[in-house]
Amino acid sequence: MTMTSYVSLRRTRRRNHALTYAALAVLSIVILSPYFWLLETSFKTRVDAFAIPPKIFFHPTLSNYIVAFVDKGFLHNLCNSAIIAAGATAVALAVGVPSAYAFSRFRLRGGGLLLFWLLASRMMPAIVLVLPMFIVFARLGLVDSYPGVIIAHVTFDLPFVVWMMKGFFDAIPGELSDAALMDGCSYFAAFRRVALPLTAGGLAATSIFCLINSWNDFLYALVLTGRNTATLPVGVAGLLTPWGTYWGQIAAVGTVTTLPVLIFAFAVQKYLVRGLTGGAISGS
Amino acid sequence: MEVAGNSAAGLADMTRRRYGVRRPRRETLAGIGFHVPMIVVLLAITVFPLIYSLKLSFESYSLVQTGMNGQGVGLANYSRLIHDPEFWNAMKLTLIFVFVGVSVELCLGLVIALLLQSIEGGRRIFVTLLMIPAVMTPLVIGLMYNFVFNAQFGLFTYIIQRLHLPLPQGLLGSKTWAFPTLIFTDIWEWTPFMALILLAGLQALPEEPFEAAQIDGATGWRTLRYVTLPMLKPILVVAVLFRAVDALKEFDKVYILTNGGPGSATDVIDLFTYRMSFVNWDMSYGSAVGMVLFCITLALAFVFVKVTTRTSTG
User: Fold this and answer.
1) Does residue B43 form part of some domain?
2) Fewer CB in 10 Å around end: N or C, chain B?
3) How many angstroms separate the CA atoms of A117 and A114, rounded?
4) Does the structure show a pLDDT above 70 at B17?
5) Is residue B26 within 8 Å of residue B34, measured between CB atoms?
6) Pairing relation of β-strands A244-245 and A240-241?
């Protein structure tokens, strides 16, 4: 290759690179602009929010947040969301993690079928399960109670925990727990003291994904919660009424709803592909 | 990158066979012990509701409506379903939603993944930005697009006016445009994540075939067509299946953006089922539709398992 063609090749490559960066930058702006607009609107007064052309620079106000969370009681919805997400995550972990360990460590007849059922449960549209649940819960007095909607959320969190944690347990060498057993540990102690500490990172990531899944759920909460237990998504949907819509407050509640999710997601970025596909694809 | 299978348990088995260690009965018992709580909970919260729903689907039942007290009606709900044009409309819309949405997400996602793969610095920043839509609360995404497409002050409405695009002001109120707009929001939500899955797949590919292609003088396009895509195929299939299953149960965005309207232009199947069960309060008919959805889910889960186990062993 002659010198000139080498130089020109490098030049085209550099130009291509610049184009790639430009394309990715435009793409990021397109993707993020609706979200930025939501954030902006949450700090706008009613007049600024309706201004045409849309105002980019304006005098920010916190009044939307104060009205929504203090006066309209969205603080209560925020607590409900947190209680329900924490409850469902705790139950799913307590029940699912030992089972995931067993799937990874022991061969069991019918294990394949059980894993298949877990996968199918995870894929199941919420509407299929929420209908019979609503009727049963109505009879048991569990509608508009924390246990009711927590049980409902376990239907998607539990299969998720088993599939995710099975992947993490698969990655640790079986010899370690075998050695523990030789040393006289019980099966449970081998799980508790050897396997569990080794998958601490995975366990943390799995819990965070459970919290996000539960926090983001709308349909189960819409049907099974009521005045006392409505989560943030259910509450904020109620602000969109035919009689007038409080856009600023919707934006404020929307911002507060997404913020914890984004923070948590940054924390588990490494496991994102794996987590959002329910352990089906384990990213590098 | 690997597609999950049950390789580790298999490995443990092989080791045992090789060293002649017999699997003691105690171990089987321990395995069952670890599973018992999960199985009990799963029976209570998935199997029982499904059986109950199956029973309901052969009855006429409503918590609210009078005269529907659970009397048996045989297959009436199912025959009604077969002859219900609204049901078929919902099925058709859902299929279009899944097919168009996932196809566009796949193509755009692949392009973005290839762009991300080709840059050296700053990939992390883009990846971090791209994950935002996928983790955002879907209902808030719906509300956000309610802003964007609002007929009076929406950002997009403003753009339409400024560029004099031949589009109506309130896209969501238009019979023609509401459904494409919904598909657009789904594409916005999931294309970046599709790109992240495919990027993870690309990064896990071995280097050698690409070097060989370069030595053979293959152009970029030919390399993509004959080297990259065939090697990426397992992950493409899993990603598409995964997304399709998810798009089939779309509810949140449609509920908040159009609630099925105008007319029934955006009435996807989950929304239809919800309306039958909790607006019309015909819970037995809702159960019948639910059973159909359940069968579709089982079939898809079966395909999913077949595909993933094949790719992990092959």
Assistant:
1) yes
2) C
3) 5
4) no
5) no
6) antiparallel
Domain extent for B48: 7-56
The shortest C-alpha distance from A211 to chain B (Å) reads: 11
Give the one of A188, A216, A272 whose C-beta lies nearest to B137's C-beta.
A216
Tell me how far apart the alpha carbons of residues B296 and A226 are, in angstroms, rounded to a whole number.
Answer: 31
Residue B247 — φ and ψ, nearest 5°? -70, -30
Return the percentage of chain B with pLDDT > 90, whole number. 47
User: What does the block give as tokens for B232?
Assistant: 């990426």
Q: Which listed CATH number (2.60.40.10, 1.10.3720.10, 3.40.50.300, 1.10.3470.10) goes with A63-276?
A: 1.10.3720.10
pLDDT computed for residue B14 by the predictor:
52
Q: How far is B202 from chain A (nearest CA, A)?
A: 10
CATH code of the domain containing B103: 1.10.3720.10
Q: Domains in chain B: how many in total?
A: 2
Compute the nearest-CA separation of A38 from chain B (Å): 6
Q: Which residues of A touch B129 (CB under 8 A)?
A: 28, 31-32
Residue B58 pLDDT greater than 90, yes or no:
yes
**If contacts are CB pairs under 8 Å, which of residues 168-227 in chain A contact chain B?**
169-171, 174, 187-188, 191, 212, 215-216, 218-219, 222-223
Mean pLDDT of A117-131: 93
Q: What is chain B's mean pLDDT, rounded?
A: 86
Mean pLDDT score, B28-55: 92
